[in-house]
């Protein structure tokens, strides 16, 4: 049963990582491209890490602290790095695609 759960979590995590990577490649400007790695890829990595936790808990019969620490680090750093990238793009007055919503509401610091 553990192998089925691990397989499903790995497939789901891999699917989210693939969707995030395709989204990053297909979006027209920097502001839209940033959503791929910060949203979908983070969720995909969480699926892979949960699969690793389930697998090693079933094999070794003890929870793995490494995967939990990686998950916490990933969930803390991804939004912060995304925020810093957006602030830098706004500071350097990067041009946005016409379809990007919310750009007209950005105020200069």
Descriptive key words:
single chain, 109 residues, mainly alpha
Could you characterize what this model shows?
This protein is 75% helix and 0% strand. It has 109 residues and is an all-alpha fold. It has one domain. Helix 1 runs antiparallel to helix 3 (35-60). The protein starts with a helix and ends in an 18-residue tail after the last helix.
Quote the beta fraction. Answer: under 5%
Number of domains: 1
N- to C-terminal distance? 55 Å
Rg (CA only): 18 Å
N-to-C SSE string, H for helix and E for strand: HHHH
Q: Which consecutive residue ranges, at least 5 long each, have pLDDT under 50?
A: none
> What percent of the residues sit in helical stretches (DSSP H or I)?
over 70%
Count of individual helical segments: 4
Tell me, briefly, the overall form: elongated
In a few lines, what is going on in this structure?
With 109 residues, the chain is mostly helical. The protein has helices at 2-26, 30-33, 35-60, 65-91. It holds the Pfam family PhaG_MnhG_YufB.
Secondary-structure topology with pairs:
Layout: H1 2-26, H2 30-33, H3 35-60, H4 65-91
Helix pairs in contact: 1-3, 3-4
Pfam families: PhaG_MnhG_YufB
Organism: Pseudoalteromonas piratica
Protein name: Cation:proton antiporter
